[in-house]
Batch of 4 targets.
Target 1
Amino acid sequence: MDIKQYWDNAVSYTEYLRDAGERLGNPKNTQEADYAEYYRLGIQRMNRMWDKYLPNSEQVETFAKKNFNGKILIISEAWCGDASQVIPVVVKFFEQFEIRISYRDQEPSLIDSYLTNGGKSIPIVIFLDENFNEIAHWGPRPKHGTELLEKHKANPAEFSRDQFYVELQTYYAKNRGFDTIGELLELL
């Protein structure tokens, strides 16, 4: 796989937000129209997380010792609840590096290399060196989010999809990216 071709076709975070707004206001196909509420929530969550997230000083110090000098490619879609909470945190924490976002549904061959339990779950954060070699990847959600999903799947009658979504979004709001960055730093 030539990951550089995906990088070259990917967009900045600013373009990603703009595209989300355009898809919300002027859907190009049935899926975008059907996902309007998810786009609206995604944009709202991304803006809120951008405003609320502050890098943790200990995590900043830990990262300084990692000597990372590469790029970050993220596979995502703006309608994704996990992505709307994760991407602003990643972009803000790693702001001194080049970060690009590849759309999962426009570049499906990329996500096929990063399946989660056979599914095309997003976001996927890929750390690359200067020559576009993969260093590590992470996703689609922090460990606690995965535990909540597994709890729902194990007993949907006791822990409904709605309960799962509420608990997951509450976790993201309270945690404010700390676990996401912590897990990313462990990979580097």
Target 2
Amino acid sequence: MERAAVFDVDGTLVDTNHLHVTAWWEAFRQAGHRVPMHAVHRAVGLPSADLVAHLLGDERDPDRDGELSAAHKALYGQYFDRLPALPGAGELLKRLHADGWQVVLATSAGGSELSALRRAIDADEAITATASADDVEQGKPSAEPVEHALELAGVAPEGAVFVGDTVWDMKAGRRAGVRCVGLLCGGIPRADLEEAGAEAVYADPAHLLASLADSPLG
């Protein structure tokens, strides 16, 4: 059976979640909104429009959502030339590719942001395809990003495993009918990942790589 290993990117393969938190917090502050950083952290992984709606609610002026997203993008863009891959990220993708898995990225990032993330991972030769925010109408926790990744790989849900670091990732994977693996390197607690659908949880890509034989990707 054809197999696909589908990966979220931010917080899963590249250590960017707290950079996103800082950029969103500053974007909200500049617009006059006081949003605690811990609340922003919990929302990271949602598409920009959904994150704003989730944190500010129905009382906000939705006509200003675009300004907030643009401010976050500009603030976060300052880090593009130095985004740090998480330990073992590139090595994990290369190992899975060598073992016969099709490696597909499923991320809310697109354009120059996605290019910067891929440069950080430095494993382009192992990546079969990418399902980015530019390719789907709904982001996680909708199943659409994962389903699109499976379409690109030509793999059925039962032949796929989705690896992510947020509750939104686990919910998207479960809704797409795939097995889910959670990583703690994005800062979300193990219990939250398991409750959202993670079958197994590891510290980071290096830990998953070292435990590969006994993991859902073994």
Target 3
Amino acid sequence: MRNIVLGVVAAGISAALGWLARTYLWKRKLRRKQAFFGLPDNSESLLVVNRGASGPDLAVMRYDVFALLELAALIKDCNAHAQVLPHDAARQGFGERTEFCVGGPASNRRMAAHLSSLLPGVRVNVDADPSPDRGAFQIGTERYRVEVGKSEYALLARLTVDQSNGTRPVFLFCGQTAITNQATTRYLARNQERLTRKYGDSTFVLLLKVVNSGAYGPDVVELVADVTREAKTPLPAVTAPRNSHRAS
């Protein structure tokens, strides 16, 4: 009987220690995720999205809705809350709340302002007239053109400013097409732990390439390069891009 009792006690102690260890690891993982996104328990965040080109005032394009759903799941996992605002109604500075800004500068004024003030080394062609460079990214001396459905680029950035003390970042999801906005949010969701290990709570700017979205949708995404230094270095007044990148 004594051996049975000791066995039960040992099993109980082992189970309790295992539960405590799992709880500790889960909480540590959660705290790291919350620090990366700047979302402690019950904190507020801002989802800024571009309006649709037509329809009612609050219409949002289908792929941008999918992007918002990806981000909403991340925010919920951090035990935080989100407010959705159209780009022309978001009027606040930095550091008060974590911000997730979705959409290119042609349709999102907030994104255009962020690129201008925070990433002076990035220029996006927003001309309405059809041309080979329409929608192209210029980052430093490199130019990245879009081939819709085949080869499309997007920027994923985590940025902080002095006012935020690094705790309330701005995340940018700036794609050349609507589907690349969703692809970028999905890339963040899938690679958040790896990005946390590599960058912690520091600034980064990644150039992503969405491959053959016409066949694969937003699922096939390649990391082209970490362009943090180039994106934060102001472009000269007149720049002749060295290369134009197209799908082979």
Target 4
Amino acid sequence: MTPIRHNHPDGPENPPGGGSDSDPILDAVRDCVLAVGVRRTTLTDVARRAGVSRMTLYRRWPDVRSLVGDLMTREWIAVATGALPEPAPGTAARTVLVEGLVAGVESFRAHPLFRKIVDVDPELLLPYVLDRRGASQEALLGLLVGGLKDGHADGSVRAGHPERQARALLLTVQSFTLSLRTMTDEADPELSSPAFLAELRGILERTLAP
């Protein structure tokens, strides 16, 4: 995957190492955040854990927030791409898209980094919910647009503006990802997380069907 442009104002637009699958510095900041949360993570902690100098970090990221932004981009894109099923011959693009989105919501909610941020530093996510799109959201929109165009081509997705449809889908799955636990009652099978994921699958199918 090509480097991804960052939309948050706190970091450089394309810092080296952003989005890398095996960057030891991003691995180190992930471990720090999982241990103590974002607010208590320092560049000194990250440098020590990664075995590099603080100046090495400062040359690439101005602060912890921009470093965590790159970490989230890497992790969220990996979750989204990993959730997309390999299409079997004859499988409709709509089926691949719907199953990938539902699996993605489930995987996001189970992801240790996502759970830690939601539990300890939820304000970190607010700008990307209320004010602007982040790099990972742009990447996800690209994946969705590609899947929608495949669906338009095979006739399994209703005709429409692919970018608008992709943004509407992302709004839908974001709400399930971020707010699902406010609506579930795990003691009631009809209001459990699996029941709501099944409801999401139905919503997406009806939204995309021709």
